[in-house]
Structures are given as C-alpha cells and as structure tokens.
C-alpha cells in the first residue's frame, strides 16, 4: 500500500528535523526565546523603560507604587525566569510558562494598553505553541524542579502579599502593614480562610479569587514536579531489585510489533542472544518482566542510543511501514556504530526505495509468500536459491 501524502510529508519533515539536529534545539530553544521576548515586551508596554527602578522600589518595600504595576511586573519577570527552564526542557517550567502566557493574554484582553491587540495575539500564539509542544518538555530533574518550584512560590507570595498591602483599605479590618498582608496571603493561598480579614470591594474580592486559583495551581504543580521524580526513582529502585537490566552491548535490537518482529525476537531469545525491543508505545497488556524494551520513536537518535543501537551487533527494523524502516536505517547510520542494519520490506514496490537507505540486509518474507503461492499454483519449480534471494537480500545484490 502506497503511503498517503500526509505520511510522506510527515516522514520528510522528520528526516529534515534530524538532518539539522532538531532534537538538540527544537522546539525548546525557539519557545524559550519567544517567551523571553514576550516578557520584555510586556514589561516595556506596561511599565515603560523604567521597569527596573520600579522593581528596585518593590524590593525596598513598595512605597508609592500603584497596585496595577504589580501583576505585569511579576508576569514579565516570571517569563524571563521560566525561559531558562524551557531551555532545560523542564516540565514545571513549561507548566508555569503556559500559565504566565495565559495570564498575560487575559491582562491584555481586559487592560487598556496602546499595544494590547498585538500583545494579545502574541500571547495567544505562545499558549498554542506551548500546548502543541508539551511532549518535548518531559524532564523532571529534582534540582531544576525544586529551583523553579521555589521561584514560582516566591513570586506568588510576593504577588499576594503586596497585592493585599496595596488594597489594604478594601479589607475589613484594613491591612496596614506587610506582616498582616503576608498573613492574609498565606491564609488565602492555603484556602484555610479564617474569616478574620475579609474583602469588602469588588476589586479585593477578585484579587482574593486570583490568589486562591494561583495558589492551588502553583502549589499543586510544584509539589507534583518535586515529589514525582522522587517517587519515580523509588519505584525504579524497587523494580530494579527484581532483576538487573540487560547490558545493552553486543546485542540485537528488534524494532516493531509486527508478527515478523515478534517471531524474530522469540527465536533470538530462544537461541540465547540478548535482545532489546523498541516499541512506539507499550502494549495495553504490558510487557513480560524478562523483556528488555525501550518505548519511543524508533527513528529518534536518543531512543536508539538508549536501546544501545550504537553498540549492538545488529538493528532489525521490522515495522509495518516500509518508509519508517528506511528512516531507522538512516538514523542508525548517523550513530556511527558497528551495528549491521536489517530492513524489512512489506511491499515489492518499496524495495528500490528501501535499498536507497543502504541497509546491510533486506528481508522480504511477505513478498516471498506471494511469489511462492503463484509458483505453486502455476507449477513452476521452486529452488533454494530463489527462496534465499527473496528472504534475505544482502545490500549490493549478493545473496545471503
């Protein structure tokens, strides 16, 4: 079956992505740059060129500052900080960046700024791009997560404390000092709500709602980002006690979940050879404990390295899509390892295209089945050389 135009376009984009070294810089570097530019732009629009002196006054106590200056200041600085986290592919930084971009879009929607429409479109685009690239931000380093979690919590506390202090006259009793403002901020963020200080105006009530929503989101995200890696590592240690992972060196890598891939894996294991499987996704029923497997895109260099393809004896690409098998062969060659490459061909029309990838061996068992059926029905003689020529084809035309 011929691949669809969409599949061909996707394959070409993936190939171009690998050639330009995309996995090492895309999309996290462009998104980090866009987020940092958005932060600078927001600070310039809301606070002008004097946002740094305003920040210094805020750190000194915030006397004389208008309350409306606080949200854009914190959102803009937060974007600059989270841009660093995006460079590290931090999942927590991605979450906070998405939240900050959404808050910036809302502030542009309800605010009065000379450049509100361009900024609104910019931050909506940022939200869409971040949401589209969420799979790329999967790193959960305890150190990085803790750093950005603390940054997010500190920013939220500053926002809640100074916001309460600035709106002090709108509460009952009035909040007249930073200690009381910090107390109300912590009580509100934790959703305890003792009721000894209550908002009396619409502005104060909306501010309290924003503190509650942000508090729940930031604390939940921060705790998840910090605790999840610790729990994962503990579970991995428990699982690893049941048996050590196979040493991925001088082994075979079998890619795909087709009948050919499964049978090849079983036969290699039955003969006592170490085998690592690569699957796009884990089966719903799970994998047996004795199966050494890597889940991911088989044409991704990082996934191949994780499976030890650069140190393997052979890498066998046996997926149902012939073009994907060819891309795997090209990706393995980029690793510059010693592994031989074996590519399965399911459609005779694709044989020439797969050969362009120059695999060491081409396997075409399904094509052979059709040839044998036709020969048996027509009474043509079947020789061992004919079978081997279709089952195993050495690159360059030599028989295996």
What are its keywords?
single chain, 2 domains, 60% helix, alpha/beta, 9 strands, 400 residues, 16 helices, two-stranded antiparallel ribbon, disordered C terminus, 7-stranded mixed sheet, Rossmann fold
Molecular structure report:
It is a single chain. The protein is an alpha/beta fold and 400 residues long. The chain has helices spanning 5-19, 22-25, 28-47, 51-59, 70-87, 91-110, 116-132, 142-166, 178-189, 202-242, 259-270, 301-306, 322-334, 351-356, 365-378, 384-391; strands at 171-172, 198-199, 252-255, 275-279, 292-295, 314-317, 340-344, 361-363, 392-394. Strand 3, helix 11 (259-270) and strand 4 form a beta-alpha-beta unit. Helix 3 (28-47) packs antiparallel against helix 7 and helix 5 runs antiparallel to helix 8. The longest helix has 41 residues, at 202-242. 32% of the residues are buried.
Note the total helix count: 16
- Gross morphology is elongated
Low confidence ranges: 240-244, 394-400
User: Would you count the extended β strands for me?
Assistant: 9
**SSE-based structural type:** alpha/beta
* Average pLDDT figure: 79
| Termini gap | 27 Å
* Radius of gyration, taken over Cα atoms and rounded to an integer in Å: 29 Å
Outline the biggest β-sheet.
7 strands, mixed
How many structural domains?
Answer: 2
Helix share bin: 55-70%
The side-by-side strand order for the widest beta sheet comes to: 5-4-3-6-7-8-9
The helix/strand order is HHHHHHHHEHEHEHEEHEHEHEHHE
% residues in beta strands: 5-15%
């Amino acid at each position: 079956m011929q691949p669809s135009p969409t599949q061909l376009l996707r394959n070409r984009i993936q190939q171009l992505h690998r050639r330009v070294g995309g996995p090492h810089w895309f999309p996290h570097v462009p998104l980090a740059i866009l987020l940092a530019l958005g932060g600078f732009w927001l600070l310039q629009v809301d606070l002008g060129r004097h946002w740094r002196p305003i920040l210094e006054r805020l750190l000194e106590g915030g006397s004389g500052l208008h309350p409306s200056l606080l949200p854009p200041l914190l959102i803009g600085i937060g974007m600059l900080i989270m841009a660093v986290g995006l460079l590290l592919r931090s999942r927590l930084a991605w979450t906070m960046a998405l939240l900050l971009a959404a808050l910036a879009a809302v502030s542009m929607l309800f605010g009065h700024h000379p450049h509100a429409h361009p900024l609104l479109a910019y931050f909506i685009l940022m939200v869409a791009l971040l949401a589209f690239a969420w799979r790329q931000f999967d790193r959960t380093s305890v150190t990085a997560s803790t750093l950005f979690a603390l940054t997010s919590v500190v920013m939220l506390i500053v926002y809640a404390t100074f916001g309460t202090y600035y709106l002090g006259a709108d509460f009952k009793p009035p909040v007249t000092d930073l200690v009381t403002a910090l107390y109300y901020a912590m009580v509100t963020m934790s959703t305890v709500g003792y009721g000894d200080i209550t908002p009396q105006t619409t502005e104060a009530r909306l501010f309290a709602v924003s503190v509650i929503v942000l508090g729940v989101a930031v604390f939940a995200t921060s705790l998840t980002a910090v605790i999840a890696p610790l729990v994962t590592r503990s579970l991995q240690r428990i699982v690893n006690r049941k048996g050590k992972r196979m040493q991925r060196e001088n082994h075979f890598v079998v890619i795909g979940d087709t009948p050919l891939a499964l049978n090849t894996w079983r036969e290699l294991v039955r003969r006592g050879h170490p085998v690592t499987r690569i699957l796009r996704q884990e089966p719903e029923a799970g994998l047996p404990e004795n199966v050494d497997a890597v889940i991911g895109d088989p044409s991704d260099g990082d996934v191949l390295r994780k499976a030890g393809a650069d140190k393997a004896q052979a890498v066998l690409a046996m997926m149902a899509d012939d073009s994907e098998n060819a891309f795997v062969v090209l990706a393995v060659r980029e690793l510059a390892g010693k592994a031989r490459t074996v590519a399965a061909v399911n459609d005779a029309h694709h044989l020439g295209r797969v050969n362009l990838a120059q695999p060491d061996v081409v396997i075409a068992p399904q094509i052979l089945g059709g040839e044998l059926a036709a020969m048996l029905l027509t009474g043509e003689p079947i020789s061992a050389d004919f079978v081997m020529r279709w089952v195993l084809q050495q690159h360059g035309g030599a028989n295996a």
